[in-house]
Give the backbone structure.
Amino acid sequence: MKKTMLFYIILMLASISSANPVFGEPVILALGDSLTAGFGVRAEDNYPSRLQVILRENGYPHKVVNAGVSGDTSAGGLRRLDWLMRHKPKIIIVALGANDGLRGLAVEAMESNLEKIIQQCQKTKVKVLLAGMKMLPNYGKEYTDAFHAVYRRLAKKYAVPLIPFLLEGVAGKREYTRDDGIHPVAAGYKIITETVWRQLKPLLAAKPKT
């Protein structure tokens, strides 16, 4: 009888732990496309994996969940958000929009999708770190300016921290990207991780005392 009762207590505690992040590691969700997923590099080389290492090295207990899907758009990220919330994240890094731009989709639609993602996060008290993107100049100045302005406008409207350009110092540099000049190689992801870390660190709770 005692063994049976102990078994059920253990099951109950396990259930509570999985449902309530207070009993486990606080989660940082990296929501994005191939730039987050790590297209073409080893799993340990993408920025969420490298970010996990930095967090551990600096004494933070957070768990980084890579929710990057190659080819995803802002609309796709919005559709996936409800399901991803099962991770009960404390912080979500939103790095979407690149594929919207590459496909020439309406800037207004992208802004609406990103805005709904931010609203949904803030409604559930999840902190947002917004990662901006830029478009190639051959899309025309009017489109590229309007595209980039979306991120600044949303960051200001919702008072969320902004990474002006996720690929700063990486995009277009042969030593840091694949032949397309966009997708990072391992060395490029090292730079991206440092860029994300600078903006993420202020959002983290104080480190536990050792």
